[in-house]
Structure formats: C-alpha cells, structure tokens
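DM from R.C. (forwarded with permission)

"hey, sorry to bug you on a friday — could you get me a structure for this? deadline for the figure draft is monday and I only need the backbone to look sensible"
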Amino acid sequence: AQADVTSFAGMLTGWTMAGREGRLGEPGTFVFNANAHQPGQAVLLGKTYPDGGMGQAEAALNDIARHPATAQHIASKLARHFIADDPPPAAVARLATVFSRTDGDLRSIASTLIDMPEAWSTPLTKLRSPLDYVVALRRAVGATAGNEPQRSLRWLNVLGEPLWQPPGPNGFSDRTDAWTSAEGLKTRLDIAWQAAKQADDIGDPDETLASLVGTSVSAETRQAIARAESKQQGLALLLMAPEFQRR
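My reply, with the result:
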C-alpha cells in the first residue's frame, strides 16, 4: 500500500552517502546522518517500529527479507529469468520454499535451480535481453582493438537498455515480448555485423559454432554458416542466428 511506501521512506531518512567534500566521511561511502532522520515510530505492514535511528530501517529490512511475499517475489524473478517468461508454478513454489527455509541463502537457491528439470527441459524461448546479447557478442568476438567499452554502451543505448538507466524502480523487463519489436531485431542484426567486422582472429566455423551455440544449432543455421563466403560473414550469420539470440 502507498501508506507502507511512505512510512518506509520515512524510516530511510538519514541514510545517505558521504559527498565529495568528505565532511561526513570518505567520499562515496555509506553514512547515517542522524540529523536528517525523521524521528518517531513508524508502521510498516501492520507492525510498529519504535524510533531507533538507523536501526529502525534495519529492523524493517530484516522483516521484509523474511516475509513470505519476498520469497515468492524472488523465486518468481529467478524462475522467469532462467526458465521461462511464465514458469511452472511448481518450480516457483519450490524455489520460494528453499528461500524461506534457508533464510534467503542465494547459494542454496541457485543450486536448487540448477538441479530442477524445468531449467534444462524448457525450449530456448527466452530472448536474450540487450545486456545479455551485447555481453555474448563481446565474448564471441574476443578482445580486439575495436572491442572498447564505449561501443558496447552505444549498442545498449540503441537496443533500449542503457546501462544502469532503467525507466523505473522495477528495472528493465525480463520478458521476451519487451525486446521483440521489428526495429529492435533489425538493430540486433546490424550490431551482429558490426561485431563480426571487429574480430581479428576468426577460427574454424564449426568449432566456433560448437563453442557458442552447442548442440542447439539447427540444420538451417548450420547450412547458412557453411555457405558463407568468408569466415567473417560466417561469424556474422552465427551472431544473427536465432539460437544465438535466445537462451
């Protein structure tokens, strides 16, 4: 509820960072400024938290972390990212149970996710987000003179996912339909060709195909790459392939 949002914002008053002048501490470090904290008790999710300075918000955060809705939310996000846009409810429930049982231990949750059959049996239906795609491109092309950070940042901008600049507090969408516009896919093809042109040392096409895509490659993709007029064109076709676009 909005009342909870407002109440928690009041608890967080005073939480800040030291500025460049260094008056409150080492620039960029966390600082609790007691003079800027809103005094008094606060109510969040039906529970009253007494005024305790920085400890007030810390107590609230501990309770939020252990709330059943948090377990469900984290489990849903992980399953959506690694399994499917609409993951099986049983998979989400299992992850949520592990989250609650282990007090939010992410290592245990990750191990559970890896062992889940749903994580491996689901077809490659998830389209790589722009960030995932650009990272995959850079790994595929390798360290070259043209592989500079600014170029990657420009690619992220034109693909609609500028680094650390989401449109809202909930971040960028993790659903495939957010990135499948005709213009967005055309931009990916253009970027794939640009990345391939930057590659200095392109290896054997079959070996590159196996290392980047593995066994999921289709006969059509394999044939298209085999017919490429050059290794550079073959690499570009691989970076454009549906199997490389998805995960």
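R.C.: lifesaver. The longest helix spans residues 182-198.
me: no worries. The mean pLDDT is 92.
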